[in-house]
Amino acid sequence: MQIYFDMNYLSRDDFLDEHRRVLESRLQPVVREIVDSRSRTREEFEALYRKVVSYILLRSGLGSPTDLTVIRETTAALQSVFPQAELGTFLTLSRRDKERQLRELTEIVTGIRLFNKECGKGGEAIDDLPGILNEAIPSTTKVIDDLLDQGLQRAYCYAGLIEKFVAELPADSNAPPPEYLKESLFNIRQFEHFLRILLNDIILSAQHVEALENELATRLKQLKVTVQSKIAVPTAQVYPQFVHLASIWGGFQDEMVLLSVLSSILNSLDPFTAGHRDRLTQERLDPFLAGALLITDEERRSAKGPEERIDPKQLQDFEWIFPETTKDFDELTLQYRGYCAWSLVAKDRFLVPGNPHIGILRFRNALYAFSSKDAVYEFLKNPELFIAEMTEAAKKSPELIQLLDLHQQFLTIAPYSRDPKGRLIEKPITRSEAGTQTDTHFHDTNIVRTYEWNEWELRRKALKLANLRRKVTHSVQTNLSHHRRDNATQVYQQKDKSTVTKTDGYTNVPNPQVFYAGLRGAGMDEHGEGKPSALSKVDLTIDVDQS
Q1: 326: which residues sit within 8 A by CB, 6+ positions away?
Q2: pTM of the model
Q3: CA-CA distances (angstroms) from residue 187 to 103, 193, 242, 412?
Q4: In whole angstroms, what is the distance from residue 214 CA to residue 335 CA?
Q5: Residues 100, 152: Cα–Cα separation, whole Å
Q6: 197 contact partners, CB below 8 Å, separation of at least 6
Q7: What is the pLDDT of residues 433-470, one digit of tens each?
């Protein structure tokens, strides 16, 4: 059931955007035929005009393009706005302007047909969408309310039997197993949650329909005042009103499609609850309901007396939220979708709606509700342990992940990886640095700047080239011709110039002269032997003053 709902349900805005995208894709072939048309003959223009009429019918959704009466009425409305003679001008527009004009023509023609239907002068095959919606929305709402009542009654029975069997196991072998009762309670609570989502969308749709009806009545009244049986009305006054009228009718069509899809989802959800309904019939449950305490959700969530509420003075270490001190108390987003956090763990995944009037606990930026004052005290003994045990409990019953909105706690869970003990384990978080590089232009482009698609432009260029080939080329030299004229430049003659600098100076110093005496000895003695001599040095350098 969860998988089906996730794959088929979209929010209102997302669904309408997807619906318009599909409609545009289906109309694209017709638009392409009109925009790319190159009509020249009268028969081709008539065929193109018929395609425009078909496009208007397909886009507006006001009748079949094969109904002759509808085609005649639409053609007459289109001719009053866009005669066939203007097709030539239409073909000269750019592609974007053609598509824009087609959309504008569709809105104007749709507004004209709707106004004619209101005046009783046309409107063939136009359904009364406001009347249909006013009948379908209450009918669908009643179906959902009946399914909710039936589902809640079963949920109360399942919850009462679970509490009874937990206190004392039945001896009868025909008694439903407590585990199966819990799984059936999961199913019926999930079914209830989806039904409330659909019911909120249908209530919102009813509000939109009511606003559209008021807007439609006001616009039609203004149009009647503007026209007032006049033969000619300025287009600047009436065309914007026709466009607005078509936009209002488009809102009715969106509500019809949205209601159809919601009804289809509703019909497809009911079979998912058939398993436990067929197995746990009322005849089988009645013998065991004796002595079981059946408590409704309203009774569990009703306001309690002062003795059953939390006293913040006794638990000052925690932050508490109460209805009388908090604005929009009923709009707070509670953890586990408002089910008692203690019962989910202490009673093994037993879904018990919490009572916010006892007091809401704010713990780690999450709001927790509890079914009783005792449950609060038990939870506060070790809140982190209860939160971790809740994660382990959800691993045993994966359907609780979506039912209790536990997606943030299971971002790293490997649902098909099991350890030797058979428990779900967490896969490790791996982080790594990665980089990618892409080319600026990884597709080779070959843009021919001289390309011309217009046939007449090509012919004009061909005639121009043919005309140039028959001409004779003459050369003419002018003063502006490069390298073909004399250039003269006037300069000044060079002149001799001298510069007086300082006179040269010099100094004359004496050369140093030294005489060494006794280098050749002192001569011979009487025996013919050499005499010893004494070496002496004589400085013969003249002083500077004497030079």
Answers
A1: 332
A2: 0.69
A3: 47, 10, 50, 25
A4: 40
A5: 52
A6: 9
A7: 777 777 666 666 677 888 888 889 999 888 888 887 67
